[in-house]
Amino acid sequence: MFAPGQEQISKEDMKAAEVEACQTTKMAIAGGFLLYLSPFAVDFIRKLI
């Protein structure tokens, strides 16, 4: 990564990586929230049946 003679990352590649990292972070937070709520959803469905 920091080896001499290696090409620099372009601004477009850096922006694409930043967008991907932001999306990954949001998806991880949403997944964690859904996993937190899943036991409550299962209990709610069991009570309906």
TrEMBL record:
UniProt keyword annotation of rRNA processing present: no
Swiss-Prot/TrEMBL GO biological process terms: protein targeting to mitochondrion; protein transport
InterPro entries, sorted: Tom5
UniProt keyword terms in alphabetical order: Membrane, Mitochondrion, Mitochondrion outer membrane, Protein transport, Transmembrane, Transmembrane helix, Transport
Membrane topology listed for this record: Single-pass membrane protein
Transmembrane segments: none
One of the record's GO cellular component terms: mitochondrial outer membrane
First-listed, main subcellular location of the protein, grouped into a coarse class: mitochondrion
Subcellular localization(s) per the UniProt record: Mitochondrion outer membrane
Pfam families linked to this entry: Tom5 (PF10642)
Family: Belongs to the Tom5 family.
Name of protein: Mitochondrial outer membrane translocase complex, subunit Tom5
Organism per entry: Penicillium olsonii
